[in-house]
């Protein structure tokens, strides 16, 4: 597997490259957005780890540039306070994100999950939970083959859970990704949207509550 690592911090980049190499990846490490775009065009990798805070250009622009020429899985790497970058990255082509600082084990797990979801697919995959199908590319949801209309934030919430393939997503992480806030007072908004999605789908089991932690997609 070939990994393109886009990270201008040479110390962090070196550590990440070493960890990826130990996990069996062939790593190409570049330090700028321009070099990242050139590398994707030259030889498409199996996964891109894209730092969203690059020195020569905005990471969102790099993400869009990659998406214009390739469906390669993109894992956005962001700073803890960069909520807007995380949300914008997901809306502009990133398949998932990881927040600095992180453990090597989490990095490898995120890469593995992204590759499982996207391997062999030319477009964003549809995720199935029982008779509920979530088409991430079309932003459409069907229940038993019949399409159900969801508001934008309702779909974004469901999609955030679908991308994690049944893994529990913390409430704060969902608030960051869907609403662009980490304010604990917004948790009531999250709970209200969970209730709305369950009601509209007629499948309360499609969003499972992990008590005290967050939510996950049901099976």
Automatic annotation (TrEMBL):
Which residues are in the Response regulatory domain?
Answer: 2-115
Which Pfam families has this protein been placed in?
Response_reg, Trans_reg_C
Looking up SMART domains in the UniProt record yields: REC, Trans_reg_C
Domain OmpR/PhoB-type: residue ranges: 124-219
- DNA-binding region, as residue ranges, is located at 124-219
Q: Which parts of the sequence carry 4-aspartylphosphate?
A: 51
- List where this protein forms a coiled coil: none
* InterPro entries tied to this protein: CheY-like_superfamily, OmpR/PhoB-type_DNA-bd, Sig_transdc_resp-reg_receiver, WalR-like, WH-like_DNA-bd_sf
Q: Which UniProt keywords apply?
A: DNA-binding, Phosphoprotein, Transcription, Transcription regulation
Please state what the protein is called: Sensory transduction protein RegX3
